[in-house]
Write a structure and sequence with these properties.
By secondary structure, the protein is mostly helical. It has one domain. The chain contains 1 helix and 2 strands; from the N terminus they run αββ. The chain has a two-stranded antiparallel ribbon. The longest helix has 44 residues. The chain is rod-shaped, with a radius of gyration of 33 Å. The model has no long low-confidence stretch (mean pLDDT 85).
Length: 76
């Protein structure tokens, strides 16, 4: 009778350890997926860095410059 009780306790203990390990693994996967989605969204929604456009005009008379309220426009 003592051996059967010890075997039952051992099985219950192993089942508890297995459930705890499965919970820890699943929680790690869920947190990892959430962080991956968050990082991907932040990468895609980031502001782009504005790069200047370097141009040269052929003649001074060909260049028209005006401001439309949003920025200066240079028409070559």
């Amino acid at each position: 009778m003592q051996n059967i009780r010890s075997a039952a306790y051992a099985l219950v203990g192993l089942a508890f350890v297995g459930l705890a390990a499965a919970f820890a693994v699943s929680l790690t996967l869920v947190i990892g997926a959430l962080l991956t989605v968050t990082l991907g969204a932040r990468m895609l929604m980031g502001k782009t860095k504005r790069a200047p456009a370097y141009v040269k005009a052929k003649r001074r008379e060909d260049v028209r410059v005006w401001n439309d309220g949003k920025g200066t426009i240079i028409d070559l």
